[in-house]
Design brief:
12% of the residues lie in helices and 36% in strands. By secondary structure, it is mostly beta strands. Strand 3 and strand 4 form a beta hairpin. InterPro entries: Cupin_2, OryJ/VirC-like, RmlC-like_jellyroll, RmlC_Cupin_sf.
Length: 190
């Protein structure tokens, strides 16, 4: 798939708007336990309101799945087609895969899970299909997604299943969230 070009703006010492950087992303990470999956880290913020200034590049920190507390994260993920091998044995590797992306606790896969990539984060995630198609898998329902479709994923247990036979590229914007008390209690009881 085409490489991602990032343009980062900032200010010079006089407050004039300038281009700080224009070029390829410095952090592009293949996920070892999910061959073909690649995270393209674009940017993140770590506060609300976000600090505006010439701060260092936040994507140079270790890879993390969820957004920072009170922050946001934007990334592109290339997702290969699900293979028969992955569907049969992928669940065995998910703790390691989610550890590589900085959140082993996000994996919710169990013996009877509908997909090996089932996971949950306490965040609001906007997922946009940029190329290809994807199936959003929930606990007991699915939705086929096409280019331009946008998912507003609100802390639900989910997976992304690529059943198309070709690569899919999705853009994700993750916003830190907090479960409402009633929902937190229901999730704890599961």
């Amino acid at each position: 798939m085409k490489s991602v070009r990032r343009i980062v703006t900032g200010h010079d010492s006089d407050g004039k708007a300038v281009i700080i950087e224009a070029g390829p992303l410095p952090t592009v990470v293949p996920i070892e336990k999910i061959p073909g999956t690649v995270f393209h880290e674009i940017w993140s913020t770590d506060a609300t309101p976000a600090r505006v200034g010439n701060t260092p590049d936040p994507t140079l920190a270790p890879l993390m799945l969820p957004p920072p507390k009170l922050g946001t994260r934007i990334r592109i993920v290339d997702i290969p087609p699900d293979s028969e091998e992955f569907l049969r044995h992928g669940a065995d590797n998910m703790k390691d895969a989610f550890s590589q992306i900085g959140d082993a606790a996000a994996s919710t896969v169990k013996q009877n899970s509908p997909h090996p990539l089932m996971h949950r984060t306490e965040s609001i995630d906007y997922g946009i299909v940029l190329d290809g198609e994807m199936t959003l898998v929930l606990d007991d329902s699915e939705q086929l997604l096409h280019v331009g479709d946008i998912v507003i994923q609100r802390g639900t247990n989910h997976a992304w299943a690529n059943r198309s036979g070709r690569m899919c590229r999705m853009l994700f914007v993750l916003v830190d969230g907090e479960y409402e008390p009633e929902l937190r209690a229901a999730l704890a009881a599961r």
